[in-house]
Amino acid sequence: MAEWQDPHKLTEGEFLDQVHSFEFWFGTVEGYLHDRPYGFDAETEEIEMDDRRKDGLITTLCNYCIGETAALEASSGMIAFAPDRASKIFLSTQVADEGRHLEVLLHRLSMLGVRDPEREIEARANKSLLRFKERLLEFVDSRDWEAAVFAQNVILESLEFTVFRTHAQNADPITKQILQGIVIDERRHMGFGENDLGRRLILAPHTHDRLDRIKRELDSLVLTTFKQTLGELGLEGDEAPDLASDYLGAVARLGF
Q1: How is the chain split into domains, by residue range?
Q2: Model's pTM, two decimal places?
Q3: Residue from 103, 121, 104, 24 nearest 66 by CA
Q4: 97-121 per-position pLDDT tens digit
Q5: So what CATH class is 9-39+46-252?
């Protein structure tokens, strides 16, 4: 079984050889999925939550499902116009990741008593997140590789990585384990996007200005989503973590 490695610590050659491959994917996911059906240890006990906390968690998980559905639909659509076979292989592993994320989140909703997840997700949907999903899929439909990779594997994955990691620090034991596993995947997805766009920006510096315009367009949607998510989790005011700074720091690695 391969030991999980942080993609940001790999050399470019190691990244291209390993992170794009199914072999790397098999080894890494086995490390944190073994004996964890639906993303958590089956012996972990549910804790008692008051109605407000439980309702906030359900709303939050519903919106996580929207984000994972966006990534699932986008990554599957991008395979058709990916620039090379290595990227197609990587995206096929990301499709599997996103499908599993969606499955475990839906299962968690059912554990919390949600009988009709589809209706519940629709009723509790964050409008800013829905608009982000719509915009991402427009980039995919137009076969705009650079915009799609940037919106999905940099912006969306940075959003999810930041929120999930923060939420896991304050979550109930079952949700915490689920989110910790998802965060590892998001880190790998971000690594792919940063590596791909980093090389493209070196070869075509003018691309930076177009992607910067896309970032500025999507930033307000991301930051509004952050604020509303913190409210649902009951983290507001002085106790709220500065998710905006974490997100902006992540995208700043590409010079934005």
Answers
A1: 9-39+46-252
A2: 0.86
A3: 121
A4: 999 999 999 999 999 999 999 999 9
A5: mainly alpha
